[in-house]
Amino acid sequence: MITIESVSRTYGDFTAVDDVSFTAQPGRVTGFLGPNGAGKSTTMRIIVGLTQPTSGTATVAGRRYVDLPNPGLVVGVLLDASAQHTGRTGREILTIARRFMGLPRSRVEEMLALVSLTPQEASRRVRDYSLGMRQRLGIATALIGEPGVLILDEPANGLDPAGIRWMRGLLRDFADRGGTVLLSSHLLHEIEVIADDLVVIDNGRIVAQGAKSDLLRSAGSMLRALDRDVVAQALLDSGVTSTPVGTDGLLAHADTAKVGKIAFAAGAPLLELRPADGTGLEEMFLELTAQTQRDTTSDSQPEGAVA
Amino acid sequence: MTTLDTTPAPVARGTTGSVTTHRAIPMSRIITTELRKMFDTRSGFWLMASIGILALLASAAVIAFSSDAGMTYSAFATAIGYPITVVLPIIAILSVTSEWSQRSGLTTFTLVPDRSRVIAAKAVACVGVAIATILLAFAVGALGNVVGTTIAGIEPVWDLTVSNMATIVLANVLGLLVGFMLGVVIRSSAGAIVGYFVYSFLLPTLSVLLASSQAWFRDLQPWMDFKYAQGTLIDGTVTIQQWEHLGVASVIWLLFPLTVGLAVVVRAEVK
Known about the structure:
- With 307 residues, chain A is an alpha/beta fold.
- Chain A has 11 helices and 14 strands.
- Helix content of chain A is 36%, strand content 26%.
- The radius of gyration of chain B is 22 Å and the shape is globular.
């Protein structure tokens, strides 16, 4: 469990993280979303004690990170896979982590096998690794202490499609065993597939948080109609806003049952009606992160999603 | 918590863990790991190897070029010692600065969040390496002295006292600590190495110039000039007053900046 309470961090006049509070629960994958420079990485560095917050507290497993006696056994951290001494071999980097944590030698080879780095690859220097191999090595370093909490910043970067699927399975399995996963990414599809909970940050502030199913349910329905203007008007008469999509599509901010009833009552034939889950996260993300400076348009935000 | 459980558990057992049962990472483990990190890169390895190679070359040079009268143990020790006084501080600098310039500090300070313990462990490891290196140099020098005088067909001259050997060790440890301090203060490999040459060549020259032109500095120089104060250690006999000079100069040029650097490192953001 990761708990962040009212954490802020300022650099001179610039506020990188502004009164951020959220929790990442055991047994769940928490997706941490935001545009570049929104404060994701700063927040993660604050959690693991690499950056001091200006105010607020962050705890992992009930303690401040810096007070953990042997943090590697509690929290697996991967903030930047490229932040390694490029002159060391992959095996050596794992060995150093193993020694700091006081683990048996065998763990190194187990971890190499887990992340599918061959003995030959493990003997090469990290300078010669691709980004995907560095990510695998970083995952191995994070998992070697058998922690109950994982904090990963953009772990899917550089992984090939098979690698991304592998990572997804690994994190799902980790959470299903009761582990806590905090995962940042700007790959929305990845987050949508893997995350149970979402925290969306923009300009240093949390703009939405909650269970993915709750946040996306309110994202509405996608429909196509013979005459979408008629449907849009009928929806509006019932208090449901909608946005045109493509040539004949409409994204309505209500669930499919309600939209179907309204269209039926209006006698407007639909060509297609489905929950807008696929586009929902992207839509939600773009809406939320574009709106932090113009709160007047917040009426189109998903209900109950605004923190 | 069964952290030392060796059954292959490929993925975490996924508990939030009873943190209280974990023991703190012992200092000895941090020291030995930091020691390992000084050797486990190609640059680190060759830097250490260069000391051995230079020691052999220096011994060979003394044997080849020295006159019979000049072939003494102190001649060997001086020839071998010079490259060491240059290489040791660089080893100390890199052991600190690589955490920033290579960004491995992101992992190191995540696994050991108390940064002062990491820095202390590095200092202990560096001093250990320095002492071991100089003792090795003395051994190579002794070997060179025996081999050289045997080739020349003369009696070996052992003209270094044990106390002088001890002060030479101390001088090298101080030189290494200056490099270490600069690494902590500057936290950039290139910057710290430049800083070291400023410290060991530019400042002493300025000090000599100042002392020769300004009367008020002449009496202060022994107290203010770190290199000057260290020089007495190499020469051997150190008077009480020279120890005092060394102590004062060390506080000014080593302890004070190191303390400031440590205070910054502990708070600074690691990116």
